[in-house]
Amino acid sequence: MRLHGEGGLRLDASVVAIGAFDGVHRGHQSVIRQAVATARALGVPAVVYTFDPPPKAVFAGARVLTPIEEKLRRMAGLGVHHAVVAGFDRAYASRPAASFLDELSALHPAEVRVGADFRFGAGRAGDVTMLRRHFHVSVADSVRCEAGEIISSTRIRNLIARGDTDLASQLLGDRCPRGRTGKSGSVTARASKSSSSAASDRTARRRYTSAGWPAANACLELQTTTRSA
User: Fold this and answer.
1) 152 in a domain, yes or no?
2) 71 vs 28, 49, 129, 188, 228, CA distance in Å?
3) Residues 74-132: tens digit of each pLDDT
4) Residue 123: half-sphere exposure toward Cβ, Cα within 13 Å
5) How many domains does the chain have?
6) Range of the domain at 77
7) CATH of the domain at 97
8) Is there a domain that residue 159 lies in?
9) Model-level pTM?
């Protein structure tokens, strides 16, 4: 799997799954696997577009379930070819929705997969309806646990807060296959707690904007069980 900053990837065709994917829990795994399966059927790369830190960590001080290194390892193990990691901060969140649409257009997605509540752009102006004006969009169904409750990052955080780590681990799907870091480099892990300060915001953007990376290190190879594209 190759790692890119926002605006750092251009493709002739792709299937793209978008989300914070904090924890890469069983619900997230279902979305990503569906994207990978569709990409494989179409013979195009599978791309995940995600955010670090997750928006809820920036705006609500939520605890981050998995540091970026672990998140990327889990995605690699699911067969993703490319991960675009946007350094999320208030400046990123204030970009117009059209800017995000332009960035997606550079990937020429045959399909975009998102959750029903996905929002993007300043003031959360962009939504699924807006995405559908530009791309073929599939909205992911919620995944429920054996007890019938929806699996979500918020629910897992609440379980951890009250000490129910066994159930939290089950919902995270800790048997999720994990890719290995390749010889070309490793991904720096972030602290697993909230990142709401201005300094953390600036650090996030420096790490993932293409301008902040030397060209030779713009992508990091992670080995997966599938052919990279």
Assistant:
1) no
2) 11, 12, 28, 11, 18
3) 999 999 999 999 999 999 999 999 999 999 999 999 999 998 889 999 999 999 999 99
4) 3
5) 1
6) 2-142+178-222
7) 3.40.50.620
8) no
9) 0.75
